[in-house]
Amino acid sequence: MENRLTTLETKWDAVIPTLATKADLEILALATKADVDRLAQQTKAEITQLSQETKAEIAQLSQETKAEIAQLSQETKAEIAQLSQETKAEIAQLAQETRFEIAQLSQQTKAEIAQLSQQTKAEIAQLSQQTKAEIAQLSQQTNTEIAQLSQQTKTEIAQLSQQTKTDLEKLSQETKFEIAQLSQQTKADMAQLSLQTKTDMAELRTDLHKMSASLRSWALVTLLALLGVQAGTLTWLSRQFSVLHTAAHHAEGLSHEADRLKAPAVVGGRIDPSLADAAASP
């Protein structure tokens, strides 16, 4: 029995100097706590920096997208205004040209009618003067011949007058027909020009609608892309917060383990070897 006690005391004398003391445990706890605090501060700094960089990038993308949308809107409005002005100028120019042509045709027609009327009057006056000269000459030659030729002359005058009236009526009808034909042709040209102008306006409205639809589609695609970027950013932030939360739990576990290791490993006035070995292990 005494030999066993001696052997046990010898073993304890050899083992006790190698065990960790309370001061060693406190130093280990402080070093562990400092490492945990440093790791937490580094993690917080990295998360803050990443969050600021992400917010700056999102703000920059938003500003660039808004600037591009505003620029495209201004360019589209300028093009629409320019097309409208050009269309109005072309319509006004066509209207002026049409009015000028109508006025020119009207003046030409009036001039031709006046010329024909003057020619007809001159011919009638000339014929009348010739007839009067012939009658005067016949009257001067002989009264008998005048009496005989009076009926013939009256008949010829009547026929000539009838023929002249017929020619005048025929000329008047031809002139009226030409005026009516010219008026119909002018109306047809005006109707065709109006129809062509309406067709051009309809095509312009169709192009404007297509342009508006394409702009709306582009804006929707841009909005969806921005939403996708925001969703990816939120997913990445949630993952970073999850990693931080896990690190915090791990640090809290290490802190509890360090507090537990700070307690004296003494049982019944002696140091418990199992607790001392656990405290000495990293």
Structure write-up:
The protein starts with a helix and ends with a helix. Residues 265-282 have low confidence and may be disordered. The chain is rod-shaped, with a radius of gyration of 60 Å. The protein has a two-stranded antiparallel ribbon with strand order 1-2. The protein is an all-alpha fold and 282 residues long. The chain has four helices and two strands. It has one domain. A hairpin with a 2-residue loop joins β1 and β2 (270-271). Helices cover 93% and strands 1% of the residues.
Provide a compact summary of the structure:
With about 280 residues, the chain is mainly α.
Report the average pLDDT across residues.
Answer: 77
Please provide the count of β strands.
2
Overall radius of gyration = 60 Å
Largest sheet: 2 strands, antiparallel
Order of helices and strands: HHHEEH
Helix content: over 70%
Shape: rod-shaped
Residue windows where pLDDT falls under 50 for at least 5 positions: 265-282
Number of helices: 4
Oligomeric state of the chains present here: single chain
Strand content: under 5%
Tell me the distance between the termini.
38 Å
The largest beta-sheet arranges its strands as: 1-2
